[in-house]
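In pairs, describe these two lines:
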Amino acid sequence: MSEFRPEEGIFDLDDVRIAVIAARWNAEVTDGLLAGAVRALGRHKIDGNAVEVYRVPGAFELPLAAQQAARTGRFDAIITLGCVIRGDTPHFDYVCSETTRGIGEVSLKEALPVAFGLLTTDNLQQALERSGDNEENKGEEAALTVLEMLSVFKQMQGK
């Protein structure tokens, strides 16, 4: 089990809407991340019409899609899910760096919780371990992160 796990609690989050944006690239992995995120949201009674899933080609497209989702004003939080596996060229470094920067920028510019569910692994086995139906599923962690952030925001607003 990882050292940090978002707090698993009872979130008082009636009427929240969450966009989940998942890359199609490395689908074997991203499908597992998506399943983990949906599972975690469902455990906290956030499902059905409260969750909208969108697929994009790859990790590099996650920030732009997150920005578009945020700018619709329809969502209270966004979960981004993707996977980049190290190869023999510097492509890995560029994609990881720019995707990470872009997702963080969307969260700050749009003042919205945007969960970072991007796996950056050395090999496929590491990615599969972090996207399987187990306690290490980073899609589940990303979902719990946005729920916790939404709860914190609600507390800050005195609600």
User: Anything to note?
Assistant: Strands lie at 18-23, 51-56, 77-85, 114-121. The radius of gyration is 15 Å. The longest strand covers residues 77-85. The mean pLDDT is 91.
